[in-house]
């Protein structure tokens, strides 16, 4: 499945997950190819559980676009009987709503630091969306050295568990452009929690409103921060089904 080009292998049912298995599945030349693996299981009462693993095999606390893909998968495959339901994640229950290919998902409480901090020679605003983010405001994301700055910040001692890194340009109070370097993956076309993080950082620093359209390389994601809780809305679609022979 994919959400704005952020692509995932979705596994329905019990699976013994190892870093080696995830890395093999996500290998774009020798495996299926994906940004990560989502394991979905039903827990009754129109609730499902989601586990997420990065392409390098590491477990992650949350994935916004992955959450939207899980919501779409659950409805399409009759794991739930209603279009609005709860997904259990590593950071708590999250509400989702499915309307065709458009999925709205709650990411939960979001916290932005009150000031920029210099890390590895860059001014960074740190944001927690259930997973860590480092937001950099730049003149032009398209010409920024994402593949150099991203891994340097991801591995900086300021982030003992690593971090996702966003490169952001605010175009207006409700329009933001970004590129993202995802922890354990590298640059991707989209990141749901990253989009929420940049809106939170932009709003906290007076650069934008708390509701904005975020333009990513894979498309546009609508973000709302309501009473300190982040919501994202955008498309998620199934690409293909198959059987892993590895």
Write down how many β-strands occur, each being a DSSP E stretch of 2 or more residues: 18
Helical residue percent band: 10-25%
CATH H-level superfamily title of the largest domain? Diaminopimelate Epimerase, Chain A, domain 1
The proportion of residues in beta strands is 35-45%
Count of helix runs: 4
Characterize the structure shown.
The chain is 17% helix and 43% strand. The protein is α+β, with helices and mostly antiparallel strands and 246 residues long. The chain has two domains: 2-106, Diaminopimelate Epimerase, Chain A, domain 1 (Roll); 111-232, Diaminopimelate Epimerase, Chain A, domain 1, CATH 3.10.310.10. It has an 18-stranded mixed sheet that branches. A hairpin with a 2-residue loop joins strand 16 and strand 17. It starts with a strand and ends in an 11-residue tail after the last strand.
């Amino acid at each position: 499945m994919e959400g704005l080009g952020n692509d995932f292998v979705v596994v329905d049912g019990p699976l013994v997950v190892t870093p080696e298995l995830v890395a093999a599945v996500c290998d774009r030349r020798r495996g299926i190819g994906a940004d990560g693996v989502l394991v979905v299981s039903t827990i009754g009462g129109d609730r499902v559980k989601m586990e997420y693993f990065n392409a390098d095999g590491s477990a992650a606390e949350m994935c916004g676009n992955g959450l939207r893909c899980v919501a779409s998968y659950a409805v399409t495959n009759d794991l739930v009987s209603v279009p609005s339901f709860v997904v259990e994640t590593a950071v708590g229950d999250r509400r989702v709503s499915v309307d065709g290919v458009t999925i709205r998902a709650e990411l939960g409480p979001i916290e932005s630091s009150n000031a920029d901090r210099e890390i590895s020679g860059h001014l960074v605003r740190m944001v927690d969306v259930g997973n860590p983010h480092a937001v950099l405001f730049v003149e032009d994301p398209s010409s920024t050295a994402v593949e150099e700055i991203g891994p340097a910040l991801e591995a900086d001692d300021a982030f003992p568990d690593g971090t996702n890194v966003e490169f952001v340009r605010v175009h207006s109070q409700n329009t933001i452009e970004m590129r993202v370097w995802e922890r354990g993956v590298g640059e991707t076309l989209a990141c749901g929690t990253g989009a929420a993080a940049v809106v939170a950082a932009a709003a906290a620093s007076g650069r934008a409103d708390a509701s904005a359209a975020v333009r990513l390389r894979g498309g546009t994601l609508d973000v709302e921060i309501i009473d300190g809780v982040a919501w994202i809305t955008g498309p998620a679609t199934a690409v293909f089904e198959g059987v892993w022979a590895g």
